[in-house]
Design goal:
171 residues; 2 domains; two-stranded parallel sheet
């Protein structure tokens, strides 16, 4: 059975979902593509009882305290082969660092002899179903600008500030 719970972060409420194999989604409520991998048959747990949900809550608690969580709960994300490749690259961006869409495109398309694909990468980044945990917020524009984020650029700025300074902006 698929399960879900609501997590209250310092930046707003988030929904965490899982199936029998692992985490299927973490979204800020009202973000773009919210619930994109939900099947509609999830049982809500409050408080969470499923070990995968509990692990995700513990991971997020550490993260929002400014600590670097070790490892990840098991994932069970749905997406295209290309999207999964992009999401895997996001996990390679170190805590407190950033990369551009072009940087990721170069890594993904290197064996195809192409340096293009930043827009395709941007589309896949925007559909990342595991917000914060798979760090799509660490991807910025080629000029260093804070570009789109499914939950809004204000939240993206807060997440980057947390990783850079050990606390959220204006704390």
């Amino acid at each position: 059975m698929n399960k879900k719970c609501v997590y209250t972060s310092p930046l707003g409420k988030m929904l965490i979902s899982c199936d029998e194999d692992g985490l299927t989604g973490i979204w800020f409520l009202n973000s773009k593509h919210f619930g994109s991998t939900l099947k509609g048959d999830e049982k809500e747990e409050d408080p969470p009882e499923d070990l995968k949900l509990i692990e995700a809550v513990k991971w997020l608690d550490m993260y929002f305290k400014g600590e670097i969580p070790k490892g990840y709960p098991r994932f069970s994300v749905k997406g295209t082969v290309f999207q999964k490749k992009v999401w895997k690259e996001l996990l390679c961006i170190p805590y407190g660092s950033t990369a551009t869409y072009g940087d990721i495109a170069k890594k993904i398309f290197k064996d195809k002899g192409r340096n293009a694909g930043a827009r395709a990468v941007g589309s896949a980044v925007g559909r990342n179903p595991l917000s914060v945990m798979v760090p799509c917020h660490r991807v910025i524009g080629k000029d260093g600008s804070i570009t789109g984020y499914a939950a809004g650029t204000e939240i993206k700025e807060q997440l980057l500030s947390l990783e850079k300074n050990g606390h959220l902006k204006d704390e």
